[in-house]
Amino acid sequence: MSMSPSKQAAIQAYRSLLRTQKQVFGADIRAIDAARKETYNRFIQFKDETNTDILEEKLQLASQVETLLRRNVVQSVAEGNTDVFKLRITKDTELGDNDSIKKSKNINRNKRSKQQSVGCCGGNH
Question: Average pLDDT in the 17-46 region?
Fold first, then answer.
């Protein structure tokens, strides 16, 4: 019995997401379990879907989620009984200097400073 290419692609995407979750969350069993359950629930919703456009859209979403997890989620691990945490940064973790975030915040600040400030009850500050 052979599977259609879309079923095979769904199985590959599902397994790949589970592997990525294990890599990203390391020894955090609760996070792995929650991610696994959410992944299962999302995939099971479309198990009988026959529309290839919808299936392709969902497979693309799974790929994007996997990439987001791999590049942007960082786990921290407490070191002993202190308030110190060690970050688990992997080779795939996206490291940046936050310049784009700093620039967008400054743009929003400049817009707000030009507008008149209005209080919660319509009063001016």
Answer: 93
